[in-house]
Design a protein that fits this description.
The chain is of the alpha/beta class and 383 residues long. The protein is built from ten helices and 16 strands. α1 (3-20) crosses α3 (99-117) and α6 packs antiparallel against α7 (269-289). The longest helix has 23 residues, at 212-234. The protein is elongated and about 85 Å long.
Length: 383
């Protein structure tokens, strides 16, 4: 490996493993923020706090516009079982989704921009960077959508950002492989909750009851099937599945209450509205058939991740070997909030592991981060 690559890999590995040891949740990230600030303070950038829990490195190169890159910082409430020497020092918490790797790549990109600005990089001068650079470290990707709060801070308007890029480590792809697609990449997610209220009675007096369990049992398969039909008719994915159903108290009594909890995944606001209206009608029908009432709720969730087609074309030309994801994926990501504020492209970086994201044994070889760093450099140099 070239000496420069060895130095880069050493830094990426050190940052990733240091951050892996100190996983924190949601917006409460004091150790993580302190660590990042310690690395950034030596760079020729302004360190900003656009909203609580967020940290940004702003490289003002005197350009008329800016490009942003984003890394998420929060971990998961998962007890780690990797057995790695750099395993979590915080019991019950773990970087099981690769955010430690995302932060390490962003730190490496920021360090490279700083070196270019100081004239320390052979073959690249500051004049070749066509835009100012903003490196965003955001909280709460796994919980409440920290990206939305960063967007709401007015930061992108102040620095005149005109595009943004981000990564997610992806176990299903070969190690070091970059992949994405124009248009819809990741889904809009919405938690669906249907609460049926009937009247409890002993089964011997079943005519006096109003069976909430039966109403829920009518509703769940009909709603799931209806979303499947919407997908077939439109050619656009629409998935609804229920993972939890609660009803009743004992086996020999009609259930007076029932609660169904599920998740809806779509790739456009239009399909979300169609599905919501259709699901609501089915819930009303199921409740009426059993003489019950129903309350139906949909969480706002995250919007779909939709890559800007024009920016994707430029990125694809700048990234040799970028693979195309054949179909949109059903997971959700709050990078979508940025894409509603400015054109953005989200990319997947393969780790080549058999362990899925969010697993308590998730780990990866830091050498894959070199591919992400190289991609960031190419994207920042893009005209």
């Amino acid at each position: 490996m070239h000496a420069d690559k060895n130095r880069e890999l050493a830094a990426l590995t050190r940052w990733r493993r240091d951050l892996h040891r100190i996983p924190e949740l949601d917006d409460e990230l004091p150790e993580t923020l302190a660590y990042l600030r310690g690395v950034l303070q030596d760079l020729p950038c302004e360190v900003l706090e656009p909203c609580p829990g967020a940290l940004c490195a702003w490289f003002d190169l005197g350009r008329d516009s800016s490009v942003a890159i984003r890394a998420d910082m929060d971990a998961l409430p998962v007890p780690e079982r990797t057995g790695a020497p750099y395993a979590s020092a915080h019991p019950g918490r773990m970087h099981a989704c690769g955010h430690d790797g995302h932060m390490a790549m962003a730190l490496a990109a920021a360090t490279w921009v700083g070196d270019v600005a100081r004239g320390r990089v052979d073959g690249v001068c500051a004049q070749e960077l066509p835009r100012n650079v903003l490196v965003v470290f955001q909280p709460a990707e796994e919980t409440t959508g920290g990206a939305a709060r960063v967007c709401g801070s007015g930061l992108f308007e102040r620095v005149r950002a005109e595009r943004i890029f981000g990564f997610h480590l992806w176990p299903e792809l070969p190690a070091g492989t970059l992949a994405s697609r124009p248009g819809a990449l990741l889904a809009r997610s919405s938690e669906v909750t249907a609460e049926f209220l009937g009247r409890a009675s002993h089964i011997a007096r079943w005519r006096e009851g109003r069976d909430a369990l039966a109403a829920a049992a009518r509703f769940v398969p009909s709603a799931e099937a209806m979303c499947g039909r919407l997908a077939e008719e439109s050619g656009e994915p629409c998935l609804l599945r229920f993972g939890r159903l609660e009803a009743g108290t004992v086996r020999n009594a009609i259930a007076g209450q029932a609660r169904a909890e599920g998740s809806l995944r779509v790739f456009s606001d239009e399909m979300f509205e169609r599905a919501r209206e259709a699901v609501a009608a089915l819930a009303d029908n199921a409740a009426a058939a059993e003489g019950c009432s129903v309350e139906l709720g949909f969480s706002e969730g995250y919007p779909p991740v939709v890559n800007d087609a024009d920016l994707f074309a430029l990125a694809e030309a700048a990234l040799p070997g970028l693979a195309r994801v054949e179909e949109p994926l059903l997971i959700a990501e709050d990078f979508s909030f940025y894409q509603r504020r400015l054109p953005g492209v989200f990319l997947l970086l393969g780790t080549g592991t058999n362990v899925p994201l969010h697993a308590d044994t998730f780990d990866f070889d830091e050498r894959v981060l070199l591919a992400g760093l190289d991609a960031y450099r190419r994207l920042l140099l893009m005209p």
